[in-house]
Amino acid sequence: MRMFLLCCLSLLAACQARGVLPPPAPIAPEGRDHAQLGQIIELASGDRLEPGQLVERLASAQRVLVGEQHDNPDHHALQLWLLRELAVRRPQGSVLMEMIGPGQQAAVDQAQADTRAGRPPADAYAALDWQAGWDWGLYGALVGYQLRQPSPLLSANLDRAEIMQIYRQRPRLEGQASTASAVQQKLEQDIRASHCGLLPDSQIPAMLAVQQQRDRHMAERLAAAPQPSLLLAGAFHVRRDLGVPLHLSDLGLASGNAVLVFAEVGSEPEPGSADYVWHTAANPAKDHCAELRR
Predict the structure, then answer these.
(1) Assigned domain for 98 exists
(2) Contacts of residue 285, Cβ cutoff 8 Å, sequence gap at least 6
(3) Which residues contact 123 (CB under 8 A, 6 or more apart)?
(4) Interacting residues of 288 by C-beta distance below 8 A, sequence separation 6+
(5) CA 158, 164, 165, 171 torsion: positive or negative?
(6) Residues with pLDDT less than 70, the chain
(7) Tally of structural domains, the chain
(8) 186 part of a folded domain
(9) Helix crossing, 2-17 with 73-89: angle to 10°?
(10) pLDDT digit string, tens, across residues 265-292
(11) Residue 190 lies in a domain
(12) pTM (predicted TM-score)
């Protein structure tokens, strides 16, 4: 028994002593020769960090919010790398994903229980009732990894029926940080821009309500989840100045949060929008507005 304990302690010490493994190589085709590629910047100071320094800082946070560009493969590869590296340094309480709605939670729970018991689903896409709008080719490896972990994989989004109800009948949003006029004006500007100026002004209030209620729901789920918790969502959702962190503040959880965004080279997060930015390779540029105007 004594020998067994000594072996366990030796293994634990070895894991704790292990340095950070190198991040994955770029996958996206553009920007591989850009000077920013691979740089990790602390926005408040402008300091450049090594991957190990970033992991150590994130490991001390109660809630980690990670922002992605949904169609960039590098962002998903780096998320998986980050989950693995954090697991070496602390027990993960839970992982939450914007890509999973509450209607899928029972299926996710069952798939995770079966996977832990050595009976992983033959078709995880079907078993999880995965939604086709989220490219399984990008998310599958990360989801499969989390299904094998002791910490739960949790939904962070609203179901479509809930979103449509918010759109039809806007609920009152409580809290000073998220309801500040400057915040709501900036969100309205982004809604107009993201819809290429084609959205009628009459729809803006409803779209704003949907955006903020989704962010409030993510904040509530993140706060209620087993700690430490980690949220994977679109980069705009996790913005400190506009998104989930404001709602966490309104819930009395202004501290204990760390925000990391992955950004393609050549793009710069606005000051105060995140704690850390990691510059990645880029997908080919698309003119989404031209597609909408056709």
Answers:
(1) yes
(2) 30
(3) none
(4) 196
(5) positive
(6) 1-18, 291, 294
(7) 1
(8) no
(9) 140
(10) 999 899 999 999 999 999 999 877 876 7
(11) no
(12) 0.92
